[in-house]
Write a structure and sequence with these properties.
InterPro entries: AB_hydrolase_fold, Pept_S9A_N, Peptidase_S9_cat, Peptidase_S9A, Serine_Peptidase_S9A. Residues 1-26 are annotated as: Disordered. Helices cover 19% and strands 33% of the residues. The strands form eight sheets. Strands 30-31-33-32-34-35-36-37 form an eight-stranded mixed β-sheet, sandwiched between helices. A seven-stranded antiparallel β-sheet has the order 7-8-9-10-11-12-13, with no helix packed on it. It folds into two domains: 32-85 and 433-579 and 616-695, Rossmann fold, CATH 3.40.50.1820; 90-329, 7 Propeller (Methylamine Dehydrogenase, Chain H), CATH 2.130.10. The protein is globular and about 65 Å long. It is of the alpha+beta class and 707 residues long.
Length: 707
Amino acid sequence: MTKTSAFPHVSPPAPEKRPVSDTHHGITRTDDYAWLRADNWQEMFRDPSLLDTGIRAELEAENAYQSKLMADTAELQKQLFKEMKGRIKEDDSSVPMKDGPYAYGSSFRLGGEQPRYFRMPRDGGAEQILLDGDAEAAGKAYFRLGGVDHSADHRKLLWAFDDKGSEFYTLRVRDLDDGKELADQIPDTGGSGVWNAGDDGFFYTRLDPNHRPSKVLFHALGQSPESDRLIYEETDPGFFMNVDGTRNNEWIMIGINDHETSEYRLMRADDPFAEPKLVSPREIGLQYDLEEGGDIFFILTNADGAKDFKIMTAPANDPVRANWQELVSHEPGRLILSVIGFRDHMVRLERWEGLPRIVVRDRSSGEEHLLSLDEEAFSLGLSGSYEYDTEIMRFSYSSMTTPAQVFDYNMRTRERVLLKTQEVPSGHDQDHYVTRRLMAPAADGELVPISLLHHRDTPLDGSAPCLLYGYGSYGITVPAAFNTNWFSLVDRGFVFAIAHVRGGKDKGYGWYDDGKRAHKMNTFTDFIACARHLVAERYTAHDRIVAQGGSAGGMLMGAIANMAPDCFGGIVAEVPFVDVLTTMLDASLPLTPPEWPEWGNPIASADDYRTIAAYSPYDNVAALDYPPILALAGLTDPRVTYWEPAKWVARLRDRKSGDNPVLFKINMDSGHAGASGRFSRLEEIAYTYSFALKVMGKAQLTGEIRQ
């Protein structure tokens, strides 16, 4: 790989080496940079001022270094930010959703960073602001709202906030008659709660010191949180837990799951003193979700070998496994993603041949119909309804060229009403752009979908730069949706591409299975195959590709950097999960036990240890000529802790050959999701895109934008 001349010659930070070793399954590793992990990380997440001064100095040195290397992009970053902000309707508002006498929605004021929540009379009228996020965030370096839920009597608002970035949310209750906060304030929650049927209390999850939702409690309004009743405690640290309710306000559902097993407990919403009733006990590999259906529950499950899921029903008063009856049978290759129940209809969102579709079922006749859609690649979402007894359901649609549209759909008459089309104030002509869906051949013969977007005038002769995005974990599918930010690259001649690699559910549940644990290497080789296919099809060239991914997608970036550094001209790894083996060996970390079904348990299994060790980015850094790399992190991130990218960057610089730089930018006031405000987040994206433009030699293209 040729040396880039885009960056000035500045000596990077070189953290001190303090070797420590560990041995597992007869294999010994040495880590020179383990000391970058703060011993008091749990306390520091709650109070960042407690960070060790030596570690803070190293992180600040990294920020100073990247600032020097990116100094010549300052004007470009401003231009990119201005463009991206110009595509956002500043005073945007959601389409209010009806519930009883009101319709509830959210909006932004001009220049506002945080959402406001409002309501209006059901059939229109003056808005009442229920919660003003900007007012709540005033004076805080970081602020993010969690769940916001009005009570069934429409007199109270339960809301949550995190002002550290550590995702320990505080719950508050607001009286909607006078707008004042009640005395009730509960810290260290999962970020949401569910009202009981009497609206005089709520259920919520409490996080333990390791950030695990270990308890479901009931809080009676006006009582001390110390006296909250314990409803259920999960003692297995390998399971996540959440609490939810039904729209008819009859049931409270406690959901317990890891990445391959689930379990539900139910209780009546009008009896917070009842013991939750077990639906079906956890059985490794058995997954099921409950959805209300009046006197029944709809059950979405993979039971009995239904790999791509089927839908069953059970009586609501006794939904145990023995009473499940099949309603929609399993069909291999048709992945059922979610179900919403209404009085007279049932709606399911599924994926067929890699694309989403909505199916509406008449509950009395069993007749089904599809909502028809046209484009080659698109995104589809179910917005549901606050109400159960209604004929109207809401859905959203967009593609990489088509702005988001929101529709109300009458499930009986099949009438579709367009409620809103996303406005792009600075203008958008979708005829100027092309979206395509390609299939890249993988080494084992599988075809990997690629969704791509480019300007109609972009030359497809191999000269165009390309940003290739990937994720590929947890069964998450990256939608081919509309994103106004991408046009700042596309209008500068970039091809923007999404690699739908194994590890997601893009082609069914098997696509996920083939990209996890022992098959994880497929995720990485699929991404490399996508890069090579784009080059073979003359969309770009290898030294013109900037790869990008975040979190588990950041792990993907670290792996492909080690496996095929010559395939990429630059790499952006956001909050990257790059020290996989060390993290999976540490059961004290917030997400480690629940993650073992996804990655394997290297503590208990020598095979899992060797599998992870073979791809863990930090463990496989070598004397390679890496392309320019940018890593980004947040200090208080509980999901991917800051020390993972900090260590990775230090080891890359120590071991790599070649002169291409490795940059590390850490937000000292945020966590996993980056900056919390909608515009401050754009500043981070502008920085990332300026890096991509810089390594492609386009850092000065501040005015050469196609229209």
